[in-house]
Amino acid sequence: MWPSIRLLGLVVFLLFGYEAYLVAGGATRVASAAAGLQAGLAPDDDDVSDAGDRDQGDDDALDDDDDDDLDDRDDRDDRDDGRVPAGGAAADKAEKKQSGWSAGEVPVSIATLRTKASQLHHTLIAFDLGVGAFKRTQVLSAGSAEQSWSVKTTAELIISAAFYPFALLSDGALRDFGIGVRYTHGLGGEIEADGAQLGSAVAGECLVDLRWRKIWDATVWSPRIGLSLGWGTRSFAGADDPRGERVPAMNYRFLRLRGAGQLALGTPLVALDAAFELRPLLSVGQDAVDAWGQRDSGIALAAELGLGGQHRSGFYYRVSLLIEQYRSGFTGLDPSVAPLRPHTLDQAEPSVSSDASMAVAFSLGFAL
After folding, report:
1. pLDDT number for residue 110
2. Contact criterion met (CB below 8 Å) for 210 and 228
3. pTM value?
């Protein structure tokens, strides 16, 4: 668990450090743009001295302009007929684009995240804290026999953050790619089996992912979807039965494939969201392998339904319901290699573990 905490701390530190770098860079670009604009508006002595020359040549210029206009009309007629390729206008636009910001354009910066239309609602960074409660039931089936134990309702703390390092781009697909982290820690509780209290139900979760979002129309009520690919851990502590039996600890390691969607209900203050996640299991922990043999299969599913909203100041809230299901198959132990341990849940037969949990949570956060 401590390596997960250190990993989370390192990621959060890098997120905020990079944000500070972007702030400094954005301020420098804005100052440079302002200096360049001011310099472009200030006339110099050469411009003043050349004013008289330009006045003297106005009559000749008017005659030349008339000739140029006739030539331009002839060129447009030729382009319409397909005789001359149209490249002049496109070249002029490209040249203007390369020269810098056009007149009246606002440079992209953190300050314009809430004022520039092309940046609105493309979050740069979000951070929230939450509290929740979860329940868990695990059932082990070996042949016709079943054993089960459960965790009573237990409180937990939740920390999550998201960072989109290219959100300051005024347009383009890169601004919608980011990373996310989430950590939960159970605050206590009891493992119960056959009415007996077995021990403390310590639990934790750490999730990291790369994510992409799609926002339609860039308005507060526009629908949005998200996809993410990542890695995660979910751990539940084991416990010793007062009768001498031991419930194995479960330390799930898995990949994450997640899809999510959100729809505002006429106002940004109230929005519905839903998500579904597929979690192919990588491992379940040595404690389970020692009791039930090698794992030969494993998959997990997670479904989430939420209600939340965001104020124009950037503060947001969310209430959610999360259901998780972990299913693992085990080959069983070979007594000729390792004798079954007395007063344990060791199994010589193939078995299947079904581990289900349900959690509710409430969180408050801020997004920029």
Report:
1. 64
2. yes
3. 0.68
